[in-house]
Amino acid sequence: MKATPRDPQILTVPGGERAATTVIEIAGLVKKFGDFVAVDHISFAVEEGIVFAFLGPNGAGKTTTIKMLTTVLSPSGGSMRLAGIDPLSEPLLARRAFGIVFQDPTLDDELTAFENMELHGILYGVPRRERRERIAALLSLVALSERAHDLVKKFSGGMRRRLEIARALVHRPKILFLDEPTSGLDPQTRNQIWQYIRELCRERKVTVFFTTHYMEEAERVADRIAIIDHGRIVAQGSPQELTRRTEQKTLEDAFIALTGRDIREEEAAPIDRMRMMRRVWRGRR
């Protein structure tokens, strides 16, 4: 029988009334690389159908956290649940619960928009008729229907990003991870992409978990925010709550007040460290 993601946990308030539905739950999550603690006992929950921003300076631990949530890295301690699934014990099932759009492009330039989406649907085992219906609906949602059979190499940066978002939703995930989704795009295109994402949240109850370095963007589109620094969560709340708590006028000012003004180095992934070690050893031969 085909495995499907479980229903997320329903939280209740006193009296038995239905409150919020959580789709991401993290408790005491830890990741160590040798003696270095990249993520240090962080905990937070994300409700269904909201836009959740995960912010932090370079090297703060946000990339490592996302890699653990998306089953790329295994944690050193703590627990995670995605749509009610434990990614550690059921990684394949967990991967069906989320879609992901990376900061770097992942589309095949030599394929058409339709072919890129078709391939994704096949890889996730979406039946042919259902797959074609979903592709048509998603291309329409991101205003690419008329370009469905054009090669991606002819697309602008904004069109590519919209296609990547649509492709990530072909298998109908409950969670959409976006890593710097509007990096390098002009303000008009960034605004257009967020309009599409907001529509997804409203119509399909997709939960969006995103990172960005555009503080004004996070302030405008995020329902909730968690700020991580030096591997620890230093603040959580709505943009308004964070600015009020830090007595600042903007989220950017609040972010600086919470994390400081020091310039940080980029967060190095384990594979980057391996490559660096390989270069070092080759240099010694």
Give an overview in words.
There is one protein chain. By secondary structure, this protein is α/β, with parallel strands linked by helices. It has a single domain (9-280), classed as Rossmann fold, CATH 3.40.50.300. Helix content is 38%, strand content 24%. It has a 6-stranded mixed β-sheet with strand order 6-7-8-4-9-10. A hairpin with a 5-residue loop joins strand 1 (9-12) and strand 2. Helix 3 (113-123) crosses helix 4, helix 3 (113-123) packs parallel to helix 5 (157-168) and helix 8 packs across helix 9. It is globular, with a radius of gyration of 20 Å. The N and C termini lie far apart (54 Å).
Q: Report on the biggest sheet.
A: 6 strands, mixed
CATH topological fold name: Rossmann fold
| SSE sequence, one letter per element | EEEEHEHEHHHEHEHEEHHH
Assign the CATH superfamily. Answer: P-loop containing nucleotide triphosphate hydrolases
Number of strands: 10
CATH architectural name: 3-Layer(aba) Sandwich
Mean pLDDT: 87
**What's the number of domains?**
1
